[in-house]
């Protein structure tokens, strides 16, 4: 599964204004509900439940909250650059300003893991992250994500 199949142009938020991890997950659940047609509350609960298992703040200012939903027709991803970094209980204890949410059907199995690996590989690239932090507008961020993903293909 390619990044271009996961994140559509409507799945990018250029300057999300939030002050906490919970608020970030609520706002992202709201946007995910618009994209997937699934209830916002169900999405939020899946993301919060995953966070209870352990933080999805992977370090270097990046978080990849994820979860599985029943009746989802395919994998979806949303990307948000936060206006101001927030505490996300990240493993390196650094604030997070880049968040990529990944939602998968309950039956996704290996596809969910492959998509997580693809997103993780892309966001481990410090150069890509610097460009994401310095790019204005959702369209430019989407273009950067999808172009960069091509060079990080497995």
The amount of beta strand, in percent, is 15-25%
What is the CATH C-level name? Answer: Alpha Beta
Largest sheet: 6 strands, mixed
Global morphology: globular
User: How far do the termini sit from each other?
Assistant: 10 Å
- The value of Rg in angstroms is 14 Å
Helical/strand content category: alpha/beta
Mean pLDDT over the residues:
92
Q: How many β-strand runs? A: 6
Count of structural domains: 1
The CATH architecture would be 3-Layer(aba) Sandwich
CATH topology: Mannitol-specific EII, Chain A
The low-confidence parts are none
At the fourth level of CATH, the homologous superfamily is Mannitol-specific EII, Chain A
Q: Helical amount among residues, as a percent range?
A: 40-55%
Comma- or semicolon-separated keywords:
alpha/beta; 23% strand; 46% helix; 154 residues; Mannitol-specific EII, Chain A; 6 helices; globular
What's the arrangement of secondary structure elements?
Blueprint: H1 3-6, E1 12-16, H2 21-36, H3 40-53, E2 57-59, E3 62-63, E4 66-69, E5 76-86, E6 96-105, H4 110-123, H5 126-134, H6 138-151
Parallel strand pairs: 1-5, 3-6, 4-6
Antiparallel strand pairs: 2-3, 5-6
Helix pairs in contact: 2-3
Structure write-up:
By secondary structure, the chain is of the alpha/beta class. The protein has one domain (3-148): Mannitol-specific EII, Chain A (3-Layer(aba) Sandwich). 46% of the residues lie in helices and 23% in strands. It has six helices and six strands. Strands 1, 2, 3, 4, 5 and 6 form a six-stranded mixed beta sheet that branches. α2 packs across α3. The longest helix is centred in the first third of the chain and has 16 residues, at 21-36. It is globular and about 35 Å long. The mean pLDDT is 92.
């Amino acid at each position: 599964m390619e990044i271009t199949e996961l994140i559509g142009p409507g799945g990018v938020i250029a300057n999300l204004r939030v002050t906490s991890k919970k608020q970030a997950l609520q706002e992202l659940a709201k946007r995910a509900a618009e994209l997937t047609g699934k209830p916002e509350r169900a999405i939020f609960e899946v993301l919060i439940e995953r966070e209870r298992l352990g933080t999805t703040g992977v370090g270097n200012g990046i978080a990849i909250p994820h979860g599985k939903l029943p009746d989802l027709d395919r994998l979806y991803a949303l990307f948000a650059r936060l206006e101001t970094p927030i505490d996300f209980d990240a493993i390196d204890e650094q604030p997070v300003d880049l968040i990529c949410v990944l939602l998968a059907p309950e039956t996704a199995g290996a596809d969910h893991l492959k998509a997580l690996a693809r997103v993780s590989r892309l966001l481990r690239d410090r150069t890509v992250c610097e460009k994401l932090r310095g790019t204005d507008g959702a369209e430019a961020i989407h273009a950067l994500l999808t172009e960069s993903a091509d060079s990080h293909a497995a």
